[in-house]
Amino acid sequence: MADKSKRWRVLSEFITGEGGPVVPTDDDSPPSGGPAPAPPDALRPRPRRRQPTRVAVPVSVAVPAQPGGPALDPNSSVALPDHIAPPGAVIVAGIDSNGVEYVFEDDPSADPLVDPRYDLDDRNWVRYRTSWGGIFRIVLLILLALFAAGWIRGRVYGWIDAQVNPAGPIGAEVDFNIPNGASTNDVATLLASNNLVGNGTVFRYWLRCGGDTGGRITITGFLGCNAERTFEAGDYVLNKNMSFDALVVKLDKGPVPEPVFNITIPEGLRVTELINRLLEENDRFNRADLEKVLADKSLTSKYLDPDVPPFFWFEGMLFPAKYDVPNRDRGNERKFIERMSKTFDERFGALLEDPGRAPVLDELGLTNYQVVIVASLIEEEAKIDADRPKIARVIYNRLLKGEKLGIDASTYYAVGKPFTEPLLQSDLDNTSPWNTRAVVGLPPTPIAAPGEASLRAALQPADGDWMYYVLTDEGGVKGAHTFATTEAERAAALKVCTDLGYCG
Fold this sequence. Notes:
35% of the residues lie in helices and 10% in strands. By secondary structure, it is of the alpha+beta class. The radius of gyration is 54 Å and the shape is elongated.
């Protein structure tokens, strides 16, 4: 097994420049009386300034030991390191059998002479570092490191550029959906999973690294990119092999408009009429499924009186409006009824904030649900918007005086007749709690679905002391009522109503 210390020494010598030429040291001198082996060419010492010149000269007299050095025997062979000698000194290294003395002489100007008898296995030769070798190697390593870093950097940027601007033509279309609440990370992951980008991480950091549509990713700025982007939830049609720029332009345009189906619900419908209307508007609805949904109390308005019986839970509490229904939801009765109920709560809740409840409502002690009942009466009686606040005031004035409201619309609801049929005396005398001709006070539930104008009028009635209203096309306005305070004014208005054919 190779000596690890040697391997590390070789590596250290390469980096620092230590090593190279060798000269004998004092720990293993050549054998006494024998020739010293000559070093190979590769190990011949190179001239070095201020290093001892190696020479061999014949002498007949032994040279005494130098001060501070070991005692020398002229008849023995001793190897001494040249650094023991002071400058200019001559030190005996050894004497062979032929009387040749080997010395080291500190003479920088002399040419070096190498003993031809150097032994390859002699460890008494040490390497000397050249004056430039270590620096050269360090510079070489630095240049190699810079070259490697530049090459790696180029490969990384090349790979990133291939992700940002992929080669080749635009690919096939792909349907892509961004769910509600999806973050930038979520969008990047979904794009990668649909093979719309090669790498989701690169796309994410490209978006975060600058500009409205992204920017160049740099190694130094990679971790510092923090720009946030969001995209609208919905369905998109994207293409494979698109550049990041083109991809983001399409995403910024927003989702493809989803085909919708319009369902229009007018004001003033009873629940039974609403079911028929929904079946007419949407052939994917089913009557049995609608009736089942309308028996689910979890979908009712938060303004519903808890004492209202099941069949009347949704009466007047589903907001009439035009609804855009996605094609995928056309057959979902539950979702549509839930949407109507939530819309009512939103719209009525907004009106309770603005314009709010008039003082007369608190004077009468009316709940919000009873305000909806008043609004349903207004919805069925009023023909023009200008009359709605006045009709509300007549209702409140009569309630304050404890008089019957006498509203025909409530009687129609009580006996279950459509408005196209005439009321009989038996209908007027019906004691149903919804018949305000026979019962004092408000009906127990709304009698129809009021719109926003009627809800607003019920919350903020007009100022006046009117006690009656009669349909007379007042002022030449079709559907306008005459509002009367006294019985005589009411009688005069009734005659006009009769002449016009409105009153029988």
